[in-house]
Amino acid sequence: MYKAVKSSRIGAAAALMTAGVLATIAMPGVANAEALSDAGTATHSEITVKMVPTCAPEYPDCDLSEFVSGEQGSTRGSVSGSCGTSSIYVDKIGTHKGRVSWGMHINTGFIVFREIAVAWGPAGGSSFADVSPMYSTNYSSSRTVSGSGNFSATIGGAVQLVGNKYVHCTIPFHSTSTIKI
Fold first, then answer.
1. Domain housing 52
2. CA-CA distance, 67 to 53, in Å (whole number)?
3. pLDDT of residue 81
4. What DSSP element (H or E) covers 6?
5. What is the distance between the terminal CA atoms of the chain, rounded to a whole angstrom?
6. Average pLDDT, stretch 57-77?
7. What is the largest CA-CA distance in the chain?
8. C-alpha angle with apex 11: 28 to 89, nearest 5 degrees?
9. Helix, strand, or coil (residue 70)
10. How far apart are CA 42 and CA 127, in angstroms?
């Protein structure tokens, strides 16, 4: 049941990101995108945020104590700790060509399943559901985009860790700044 519910959420999120709706939502505590420029024109932009440990919907009171350091009140349901980082990056790689790259690093174990939604545009606008089993602490991927005009990308989703079907690391939706391709 969880997988079906989560997959439908990822599909809906990807559609909203492609339409530019989720890119306008302010996320509390999310870092600002850093636009890097060459001779006054932004050629790439990157943003990295902390992934948040959360309980799977069917286990809302799971124990998240392994994700916090020191003394904290309740560790049931959600915590302000981190289980890793997620990054998304866009860059201009040629005339009317761009690249969107995304990745993550987990510092609390191994990822056994990822369910990520990535969207980019408006130039060459599209979306990609990056859903697959895996076994690693790191992951990265990229897509080459053809188009002309403004270009940015958004990512969000979750990963499941080995040995703990109750805990997921959520990737908060975050977006790069806009560059021109």
1. 2-180
2. 7
3. 59
4. helix 2-18
5. 41
6. 62
7. 54
8. 55
9. coil
10. 22
Place of tokens 């600002």: 32
Question: How far lies 43's CA from each of 13, 95, 96, 98, 127, in Å?
Answer: 27, 12, 12, 9, 21
Grade residue 68 by pLDDT with cuts at 50, 70 and 90. Answer: low
CA geometry: angle 170, 68, 2, nearest 5 deg:
30
Q: Which residue has the tokens 């969000």?
A: 156
Of residues 65, 125, 74, 75, the one with CA closest to residue 100: 125
Give the alpha-carbon dihedral of 178, 124, 38, 93, to 10 degrees.
Answer: 150
How many structural domains are present in the chain? 1
* Beta strand segments in the chain, E: 34-38, 41-55, 84-94, 97-106, 111-122, 126-136, 138-146, 150-161, 167-175, 179-180
